[in-house]
Each structure stands twice: as C-alpha cells, then as structure tokens.
Amino acid sequence: SQQGEEDPQALSIQEGENATMNCSYKTSINNLQWYRQNSGRGLVHLILIRSNEREKHSGRLRVTLDTSKKSSSLLITASRAADTASYFCATALQGAQKLVFGQGTRLTINP
Amino acid sequence: DTEVTQTPKHLVMGMTNKKSLKCEQHMGHRAMYWYKQKAKKPPELMFVYSYEKLSINESVPSRFSPECPNSSLLNLHLHALQPEDSALYLCASSSDRLGMNTEAFFGQGTRLTVV
Fold first, then answer.
1. pLDDT tens per residue across span A13-57
2. Helix-, strand-, coil-residue percentages of chain A, each rounded to 5
3. Does the distance separating the beta carbons of B103 and A42 come in below 8 Å?
4. What is the pLDDT of residues A47-100, one digit of tens each?
5. Which of B55, B90, B101 sits opposite A97 (nearest CB)?
C-alpha cells in the first residue's frame, strides 16, 4: 500500500490565504519530500526534510515533520493563483532507492 | 543543466505497435527511474536503474522493457500495450539513492494513449 496518505484530497482557497496540507505515513523513514505538479506535467521538488529535523522553511513554504505521529504538513503562506497545482508528499526509507508517493492534494487558488 | 528531457511529449500507438520512450539527463546522476501516473493518481514506480544496472522492477509486465544504454540515457520500449496502459510516463533521476537525502528531478513526461 502507499506509504503516504494525504489530506485533504482537494483544497480551494482565496488568493492571499494560507494553505495547509497534511501527509501521514506508516513506517520509519529517512526523509520526507514534497513535490508539486502542474496539470499533466512533471513533478518539481519543493523541499526535503530529514527524519531528525522537525521544521524547515523555503520561501513561502513551511514543512513540519513529526516522526512520533508519522506525519508531516506543508504550509503555503500568502497563496497566489500560480500555486494552483497538485502537491504530493513522498517518503524514502533508509538507504532506499525509491520514493513512494502519497495520494496528493489538489490545491486551487481562486483570484 | 538541471533538466531531465523526455521525448516524445505525446504518443498515440496501436496495440500491435512497437514504440520507445526516451529520457536524457546531463547532471551526472547515476540513478534513473521510470514512473507511471494515471489521471488524478500519484506516480507509481516502475523501474530503477543504478549505475546503468536495473536494480528495481516493480513487477511490471514484460510488454514494458527498460534499457539504459549509458549513464545519461534511459529508454522504455513498449510492445503490445493495452488501452489501460494509457497514462503519463515520467522519467526521473537523482544523484544518489533517494534514501540518502537526495531529491529526484523529473522530466515533463510522455502522455501515452493506446488505441
């Protein structure tokens, strides 16, 4: 089964608001990554958080990781219409050669 | 150059055709991947190549045949596909194992339609 599960499956907010997406996983991981995908295109890496980190920032993005709850969240602040996309969390096990993706959150930013 | 280039962008093929998808990267990455993605679903791993050797095959049907001619190129040969194989095929690469805290770089994908 998929390592990561995300909620909500879809999120629609007004431009300027903050968007929060959550990801849960089942087994111990080495790192958790967030990717963005514009409609029908390739995935773009946003941020990687290691298992010994609790929070990481990149521009308007803030990612948290709680390994005790096996969960992560992605916060996008001051959203823009251009942030409209699908967002996926992906987990990598220690020494693993692959990423396993969550189901994704479809984010729509309304102007 | 931080790009992964996939060709073609779109492909329509009949069930009796043979076609190939191509992927190229010039970042010196030694791991390359094929993923399959159906509409509104997450990418699903198909194959992993590490140092030009196939290291993971996620029980993919033999009508999909990967090939890694050199460290920069990755092909996916297609033969006798079924309509349910229609999907977005994504190639990716990484500098090291993904469990070693590296990120994956994805191409824009090939939109495959089997008729």
1. 999 999 999 999 998 899 999 999 998 799 999 999 999 999 999
2. 5, 55, 40
3. no
4. 999 999 999 999 999 999 999 999 999 999 999 999 999 999 999 887 778 899
5. B55
Between residues 45 and 104 of chain A, which touch chain B (CB distance below 8 Å)?
45, 48, 50, 88, 92-104
Q: What backbone torsions phi and psi does residue A81 show, to the nearest 5 degrees?
A: -55, -35
Which strands, in side-by-side order, build the sheet including B18-25? B4-7, B18-25, B73-79, B64-70
Hey, is the C-beta of A10 within 8 angstroms of any chain B C-beta? no
Q: Distance, in angstroms, between A107 CA and closest chain B CA? A: 12
pLDDT confidence of B2, banded at 50, 70, 90?
A: low
- Hey, which bits of B26-86 come out as E strands? 31-37, 44-50, 53-57, 64-70, 73-79
Could you tell me the CA-to-CA distances from A33 to A70, A109, B30, B44 in Å, in that order?
Answer: 13, 22, 20, 16
DSSP state of A82: G
User: Which residue is associated with the tokens 């080495």?
Assistant: A30
